[in-house]
Amino acid sequence: MHIGLIGGIGVAATIVYYQRLTAAVDRLGGKLDLTISHGDIHTLIRNNLADDRAPQAEIFARQIDSLKGAGCDCVALTSLGAHYCVEEMNALSSLPVISGVAPLDDYFAAQGIRRVGLLGTRVVMRTRVYGQLHQTSAVALDEEIDTLGQTYQDMAVSGSCTAGQRSQMLDAGRRMVDELGAEAIVLAGTDLNLAFDNQDPGYTVIDALDVHVSVLADLAAGRCSLDEVAMTK
Fold first, then answer.
1. What digits encode the pLDDT tens for the residues 106-116?
2. From CA 106, how far away is CA 89, in angstroms rounded?
3. How far apart are CA 86 and CA 64, in angstroms?
4. Keywords of this protein's UniProt record, alphabetized (predicted)?
5. Alpha-carbon dihedral 47, 50, 55, 61, rounded to 10 degrees
């Protein structure tokens, strides 16, 4: 199956999607057929913060049309934050959209995790992943959402992470475990690997990107069909 990715939102996340998807399909013994359409993170941030859904959905719809023209069978967003306008995008999409959010709830439940702490964009943390976690409760550092969200945004735009930003994110995860009872910290922002890769924070970390990549890899390798995966369309 030919996978389409809307990338560039941000660039670091897109690179990790490419790396991990390639490795996952290779482990499954499949052949990856992939096309990436580059998006503009600055436009996405402006629309996300203003909750302007229709304009961003129209941008994504044009990219999806291009991916369909390139032969893609389905499409995925390389940003959980970009899922804020997914309903509007679905109404315009010419391809099935493979959700990066929908598989998370089942994954947490399968792991026996009852409460997770969230790090990601302001909207993802504030809405508890768009209210789509039904089998698992979610917590966030509510009084620090704007500060943590800004730090995450800065990381996503620059494609890098300073020592101070890393310390801030690792500490936020620790406090959600110690003070809010989180059994695992979810990297609900696809650029957070910049802060957490090669780190041992002393608590369980689940990268939502890996859950999404696993679904895409199964599709790419022919291990499942579109009818069997959690889609937003």
1. 999 999 999 99
2. 23
3. 13
4. Isomerase
5. 50
82 contacts 49 by C-beta, under 8 angstroms: no
Task: Give the CA radius of gyration of the chain.
Answer: 17
Could you state, in order of their start, the residue ranges of all structural domains in the chain? 2-100+210-228, 102-208
* CATH code given to domain 2-100+210-228: 3.40.50.1860
pTM: 0.92
Instruction: State the Cα–Cα distance between residues 117 and 29, nearest whole angstrom.
Output: 34
Residue from 159, 145, 147 nearest 194 by CA: 159
d(CA 62, CA 31): 27
28 DSSP assignment: T
Answer whether CATH 3.40.50.1860 is correct for domain 102-208. Answer: yes
> Which sign does the torsion angle of CA 106, 232, 142, 155 carry?
positive
